[in-house]
Design goal:
Order of helices and strands: EHHHEHHEEHEE
Structural class: alpha/beta
Largest sheet: 6 strands, mixed
Number of helices: 6
Length: 214
C-alpha cells in the first residue's frame, strides 16, 4: 500500500482543518503554535476555480508551515509503518493545481523576490510549482523515501515538457499517469516520462486498462 496525501491541490479539508486548529490555539493564546502548520496565506486574494468547483483547495507553496506539516505527516506515516512494513514510497498527489493559485499572495510575492523570479507573470505558477516540487523531493529524499504522484506534476502546463529526472533528489520517482482525453495522448505522455527515467503506471481514461512501464 502506498499512502497518498494530496498537495498542493485537493487540499480543501487539510486547509480548513489547519485554520480551525489555528483559531483554537490563537484563542488559547498560543500564537506561535497556531501558525505552525497553516496551509494558507490569510492575505491571499488569488482567484481560481478548481476542477472540483472549489475556490480554496490549493495549499500555499510559499509558506514554510506547509512543508512543516508535510514533514510531520511523513514522520507519522513512517512511524505507523515501522512495525509492519517500512515506508519506501510517498504519493503526494500533485495533480489538478488551478492556474490562478498563488497569483495575489503577499507571501508568494515575498518568496518570488527571494528566489529572484518574476511575480504575476506567465511564468510565476510554473516556477512556484517547481519550488514546491524541489522542496518535497528534498524532504522525502532526506528521509530515504521515494516520491510518487499523479502524472500532471511532471509536466510544465503550457508546453507539456517533462521535468528532467535529475531535478529530483529521490532514488526513484514514480508517475501514476492518467488522462480523460483518450489513450493516444496518455500513451504519448507515458512514453515521454518513461524515456526521462521515471517509473510509470498509466491509466487510459476511465477504463480498467493499466499499462506498467519500468
Amino acid at each position: 500500500m502506498i499512502p497518498e496525501f494530496d498537495f498542493p491541490g485537493h487540499s480543501h479539508a487539510a486547509i480548513k482543518s489547519m485554520i480551525s486548529r489555528h483559531d483554537r490555539l490563537l484563542h488559547e493564546g498560543k500564537e506561535k503554535d497556531a501558525t505552525m502548520y497553516l496551509l494558507n496565506d490569510f492575505r491571499d486574494e488569488s482567484r481560481y476555480f478548481s476542477v472540483q468547483a472549489f475556490t480554496d483547495e490549493t495549499a500555499s507553496v510559499c509558506l514554510n508551515s506547509t512543508y512543516d506539516l508535510m514533514e510531520y505527516v511523513l514522520h507519522m506515516i513512517m512511524t505507523l509503518h515501522s512495525d509492519i512494513q517500512p515506508l519506501t514510497v510517498f504519493h503526494f498527489g500533485g495533480d489538478e493545481v488551478p492556474g490562478g493559485a498563488w497569483q495575489k499572495s503577499p507571501e508568494c510575492e515575498k518568496l518570488a523576490k527571494i528566489l529572484n523570479i518574476g511575480y504575476r507573470t506567465s511564468q510565476t505558477h510554473k516556477l512556484l510549482k517547481a519550488y514546491f516540487l524541489k522542496r518535497i523531493s528534498n524532504i522525502t529524499a532526506k528521509m530515504g523515501i521515494n516520491l510518487a504522484g499523479w502524472g500532471d506534476y511532471l509536466f510544465e502546463h503550457s508546453t507539456r515538457t517533462v521535468l528532467p529526472r535529475e531535478f529530483f533528489s529521490n532514488k526513484e520517482v514514480y508517475s501514476f499517469a492518467w488522462s480523460t482525453t483518450g489513450a493516444s495522448r496518455n500513451n504519448h505522455e507515458v512514453s515521454l516520462m518513461a524515456n526521462h527515467g521515471y517509473k510509470v503506471t498509466a491509466f487510459n481514461g476511465f477504463s480498467n486498462c493499466i499499462l506498467v512501464m519500468f
